[in-house]
């Protein structure tokens, strides 16, 4: 489990290897991740968008931008948290993801970024 706090917003990440399968005649490695976003600040905030940098061990990098997370733009009052699960496919058994959430503070109307710490994705059968 990995944690990081940016401007009072705590991000917790847990990952899991889900298995392998073939897609378009290429082996794919499936990973899931569960992220909890906890508002430890004194103001209400809303997550508006996200950016991901996904890298596999073959040095392939993919950037993903989108609104909200899994179709939601959660509003978090002080003390609230939002947990969601998503996943990604890699072309290798190792990789990592990093990124950020764009958020808005309702008290000040200021937008800010919350860093999602780099988290590793690794298939357990490939580890020594």
From TrEMBL:
Give every ApaG domain span.
3-128
SUPFAM superfamilies hit by this protein: ApaG-like
**Family matches, as Pfam families:** DUF525
Which InterPro entries would you find in this protein's record? ApaG-like, ApaG_domain, ApaG_sf
**UniProt cross-references to NCBIfam families, sorted A to Z:** PRK05461.1
Protein name as catalogued: ApaG protein
Kindly list the organism's lineage.
Bacteria, Pseudomonadati, Bacteroidota, Flavobacteriia, Flavobacteriales
